[in-house]
Each structure stands twice: as C-alpha cells, then as structure tokens.
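Revision sheet: structure tokens.
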Amino acid sequence: MKLAFNIAVRFLKSGKLQTLFIILGIGVGISVQVFIGALISGLQKDLVNTTIGNTSQITFTKVDDSDIINYDDLMNDILDSDSRLSVATPNLNVAGTFFSKNNTNLPVLVRGFELESGDEIYDFESKLTKGRMPINNNEVILGSFFETELGLVLDETYVMNVPVYGNRNLKVVGFFDFQVKAINEGWAVSNLTTAQDLKDGSRVAMQIEAQIKGAYYFDAVEIRDNVITKIGTTYEGADWVSNNASLLSGLQGQSISSLMIQVFVLISVVLGIASILAIIVLQKSKQIGILKAMGIKNLDASFIFLFEGLILGIFGAITGIALGFGLLVSFQTFAIDASTGEPVIPLFIDYGFIGLSALIAVGVSTLAALIPARKSSKLSVIEVIRNA
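Predicted:
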C-alpha cells in the first residue's frame, strides 16, 4: 500500500495544475455546503428567537379557568417537573380603560408579573425607551404609542377604570417598544400586586407562564405533558409548538430545501471527481501498464486511484472550509441592515456540521475514485502495449 500511495502522490504532482483545479472544484462544493448550512441555521434560529425568544413558551392555567391561589408553590412545582424549563412567573391580566388628561379613553390590558422573573422572559428592561421599571405598587410602564400618539407624560398619574371594580390611580414610570403594534398599543406592565389590587385585592394569579431553555425549544409538547403529569390534570398547558404550526411548517420547508441543495452539490462533486479520475486512468494507462509489467498487482493499481481520491478529498475539504469561512465573513461584512447596522441574517456556525461536511468531502472523493480504481485494476498489459 505504501508503494501505491507513493505512486498516487507522484501522479498528482506530475499534473499540478490539474490537481489544483480538482481540489478547487471540491473546495467550492464544500464551501457552498458550509455557507448554505450556516445561513439556513442562522435564519431558523433568528426566526425562532424573534417569534418566541422573548415570550412565554408554555402557559399553564386551571382547566375550569378559575384563579390560581397557591401560585408560588405551583410555580416551584412546575420548574421542578422538568429541568428543561428555565424560568416561570405568575401572571394576572386586568382589562380596563385608561383616562388621559385630555379625557381620551384608552382601552388597555394591565399585565401583572413578578417583575424579576417576568423580565427574564420578556426582557422588559431592554425594551424601555424612556423611564424605569415599576418599583412600587400602582406604577406601570406603557407602550411607546401612548407617549407619541396620545401625549401621555412620564411620572404623571392617570385614572384607570376597571369594570365592576371601579377607578384606581396609576403612575406611568416608563415607556417600552416591543416593535409589535398590538403590544405597544395595548399593554401596561406592572408588578403582580398592582394587578391584583385593580381587581378585588385577592392574592391570586390567572396563569403561570414558563420559558424553555434555548436548546429545547422544540420539546415544548413533551415538556408540557411532563409538567401536567406532575402537577395534576386540574391544570392544562398551551405550548408554542401547537400554536405555531405554520411557523414549524416553514422551518421544515427550509431544512428540506437546504438538504436538497447540499445533496445535489455533493452529487456534482462526486461526478466531477469520478470523471476526472477516469480521464487520469486513460492518461496514465501507459505508466500503469509498465508498472504491471514490472510486477505491480491489480490491487495495488486500484489503490493508486483510491489514494488519489483520498488525498484530493482531504485537501478539497480544507480548501472548502477555508472558502466557506471566507464567504461567511464576507456575508457578515457586506450584507448589513442599513437601519440597525447589524447583519441581515445572523449566521450560526456549527463546528460539528463543518466537521461532518469535511468528512463527507473525504468520503465522497474516495467513493468517486472507486470506478477509476476498478478500471485501473482491469487494465491489461497486452492492451496497453497494443494501444501504445
């Protein structure tokens, strides 16, 4: 085998330009695979994070829609039920009407949270455009719509009317921008006590909102079922997977498209290498015939081309990964969103995927050499002399 390897290296060196073009061909194929893989992965992660990253992914309520009294104990039970959950918070929503200074009536939904855990889910603080988070009871933050379109002022107190329960004064201590029109125009965020006092003052919650650790987003249904098994069937859970079937369908479509592109790229690489090595067999038939006349065995003649495929695959994989990283850096540098200055699509570099691509490149290159290797082993000395 050492003799076959040395001959393979000598054959490749004898046609340096040809060898360089073959390596570049493999490299371009692998670079496309690496680039497309990183692009689609980044796009999918960005879509998932944008859609559900800063919201609750599972919400637990009573089956009969009654209030939850022991919400602190329930919240702990939920978190203990499945280690894939990262945070949970009790929530109470109260709908009412906000009265501005110019007597404009504004429908609003006050969402009361335990703000420390609620902020871990919704990241309220980073979305503040002005002011601060509520610290005391009867303080709220509102969407930027209330400031820009309706003229509400920071640190002013306004009256909120809650049907059945009457009026209460609320101080506006901040404005936020979720970049979602419905939230900016409809939400007021407060601590849980403020929302409870807007009703009858009972220390209850309406639901427990929970968030899943990033690596387990797509296990939401299984996690929901695990928790319900532990806390009892008097509760039910609504998970993001069941509520976003169209998003999942779109992500699956992207994955399939990406896989198809990568498969066809690999097929073109295999066909290219096989055809070029077949031509090399013809070009080197005279040398192979002489080697066979000198005693080299058919098996060793086959190994010459298998080693050529292996060597080309290794160097092609290295070249492809280097070109792939070059494409990724170029994309991150030039494909910029003018409004934010951030890349249009954040790329996700999966080193495991890149390693797998390199192994596939080496594997398909060696595989592509099988046909030329078989042809070489069958080459007859007499036939070579006759055609010389």
